[in-house]
């Protein structure tokens, strides 16, 4: 319960950066959830924005809460995206994709003028990689793609849900990879160069601001 409060704290702070007329990217997960709730609250109080969602889950939530959504095809860029992360290091590198939405999240982040990451303090780490790196791969020839990933010194596991392979919003698989050593800059290139890999959860040099909610109820900004 305390941890959830830390997430909420960071999320609500981030929403202070949302202003009238903006196009806002909605993240995915239990931290982004609180940001979406807060945005809906501010819309009820008169805030005028439009949003794009990074997942079916966030799209459904936005619809339920009456947040106006625009299709990606109708916008050129996003003013601000607020999203969670699974790990963040001192260089603002992230691991994302714990919730399986990494591909759309990365597309949003890459099109955003401002990308704000909201986490509780447990996710701020010295070295990325304790959290297995989520990698989205196409189902076709997935065995071969996974063998190529193993050559990068990782232990891959195909993500499961309710006894079946987890399928992303884009119809792909997620492989969760534990690396012996995770060098974010090197792996960023190496993983992307494997045919069959659609995207991976390393977000390098994309983040503008990190807001950390702490269990004692305070905030830290990076
Ligand atoms: C989803 C993500 C999430 O941002 C990440 O998993 C953090 O989730 P939570 O806020 O629930 O801990 O990358 O793909």
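^ Assign residues to that structure.
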């Amino acid at each position: 319960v305390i941890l959830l409060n830390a997430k909420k704290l960071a999320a609500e702070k981030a929403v202070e950066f949302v202003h009238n007329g903006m196009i806002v990217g909605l993240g995915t997960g239990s931290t982004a959830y609180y940001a979406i709730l807060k945005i809906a609250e501010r819309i009820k109080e008169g805030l005028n924005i439009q949003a794009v969602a990074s997942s079916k889950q966030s799209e459904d939530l936005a619809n339920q809460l009456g947040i106006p959504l625009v299709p990606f095809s109708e916008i050129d860029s996003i003013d601000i995206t607020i999203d969670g992360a699974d790990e963040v290091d001192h260089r603002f590198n992230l691991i994302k994709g714990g919730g399986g939405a990494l591909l759309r999240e990365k597309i949003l982040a890459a099109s955003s003028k401002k990308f704000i990451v909201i986490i509780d303090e447990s996710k701020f780490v010295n070295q990325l990689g304790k959290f297995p790196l989520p990698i989205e791969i196409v189902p076709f020839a997935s065995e071969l793609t996974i063998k190529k990933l193993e050559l990068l010194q990782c232990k891959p596991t195909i993500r499961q849900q309710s006894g079946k392979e987890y399928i992303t919003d884009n119809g792909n698989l997620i492989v969760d990879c534990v690396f012996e050593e995770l060098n974010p800059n090197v792996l960023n290139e190496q993983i992307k160069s494997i045919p069959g890999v659609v995207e991976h959860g390393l977000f390098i040099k994309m983040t503008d601001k990190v807001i950390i909610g702490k269990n004692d109820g305070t905030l830290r900004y990076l």
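Residues 30-44 form the longest helix (15 residues).
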